[in-house]
């Protein structure tokens, strides 16, 4: 599926292709021409069955594809600049800075030997020119914004002292402390209790709308998509099957695969 580049998109993924090299040296394509755009200040969901290429696409936006992945074509236009054309340096310049990633396993992403405050302050100072005291204040404010109770005490604690939901809030704070323009969220609430998932999604929606962020949410949960997202990209087998506004997708899906996906999700809900 091809898309016209829309004026004003923060990110355009254009005919992005790639795969993994097998023992015979041949590349087996798992992304077979992915194209979609992210409108500014909009939350876009990327949905699709397991193995459809959602995570690989998301990781590629940050230039952190898994070892063995080979790009065979396509462009990644961030704010008009083709990140691939500039090589690894282009990705290094924007990663963690203008583009942040939150993924599923928050505690695995935190370093167990440093306090949470120490890690957040380090990230803050790596991306913003702030003195230690100023960075501490920014981190404290951010922990409040992600609704961590008693943030000053929490800053002195280690990751193992945080529950899964609280650790995910810390990851959100870490992603936001550099004031990114684009936030990529890869299954950010999978593995958490249902009520905590809902809390985190509420928080995300509030942060996104209050800060004008552009965000891309990879998820299996169509219920979450219906409640939170404005745009939806449906992927299957390394291709984009449908791009629609959330309203269009749920009321008048155009693609047969989208209709199957919606029907399967309703079956799960009905159980
Ligand atoms: N490191 C790897 N080595 C080989 N193949 C891989 C690797 N990572 C992903 N793949 C393959 O690439 C394809 C796309 O994977 P990807 O993780 O992007 O799917 P996904 O849509 O995010 O799935 P899920 O919803 O299960 O996370 C799959 O067929 C997967 O098996």
Automatic annotation (TrEMBL):
Domain ABC transporter stretches: 8-262
SUPFAM superfamilies (alphabetical): P-loop containing nucleoside triphosphate hydrolases (SSF52540)
Location(s), subcellular: Cell membrane
Pfam family, one: ABC_tran
GO molecular-function terms, A-Z: ATP binding; ATP hydrolysis activity
Predominant subcellular localization, coarse grouping: membrane
Membrane protein topology class: Peripheral membrane protein
Nucleotide-binding as UniProt keyword: yes
Any one GO cellular component localisation term in the record: plasma membrane
Protein's name according to its UniProt entry: ABC transporter ATP-binding protein
Origin species: Nakamurella leprariae
């Amino acid at each position: 599926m091809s898309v016209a580049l829309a004026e004003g998109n923060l990110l355009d993924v254009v005919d992005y292709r790639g795969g993994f090299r097998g023992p015979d040296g041949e590349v087996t394509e798992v992304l077979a021409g992915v194209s979609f755009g992210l409108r500014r200040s909009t939350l876009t969901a990327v949905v699709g069955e397991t193995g459809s290429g959602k995570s690989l696409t998301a990781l590629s936006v940050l230039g952190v594809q898994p070892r063995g992945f080979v790009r065979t074509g396509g462009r990644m236009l961030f704010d008009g600049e083709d990140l691939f054309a500039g090589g690894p340096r282009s990705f290094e310049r924007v990663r963690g800075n203008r583009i942040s990633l939150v993924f599923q396993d928050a505690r695995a992403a935190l370093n167990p030997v440093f306090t949470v405050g120490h890690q957040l302050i380090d990230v803050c100072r790596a991306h913003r020119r702030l003195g230690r005291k100023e960075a501490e204040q920014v981190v404290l404010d951010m922990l409040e914004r992600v609704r961590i109770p008693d943030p000053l005490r929490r800053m002195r604690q280690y990751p193992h002292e945080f529950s899964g939901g609280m650790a995910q809030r810390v990851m959100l704070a870490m992603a936001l402390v550099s004031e990114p323009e684009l936030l990529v969220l890869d299954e950010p609430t999978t593995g958490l209790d249902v009520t905590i998932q809902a809390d985190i999604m509420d928080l995300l929606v509030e942060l996104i709308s209050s800060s004008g962020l552009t965000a891309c949410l990879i998820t299996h949960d169509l219920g979450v998509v219906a409640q939170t997202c404005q745009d939806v990209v449906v992927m299957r087998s390394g291709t984009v099957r449908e791009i629609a506004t959330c309203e269009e997708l749920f009321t008048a899906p155009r693609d047969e695969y989208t209709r199957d996906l919606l029907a399967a999700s309703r079956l799960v809900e009905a159980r």
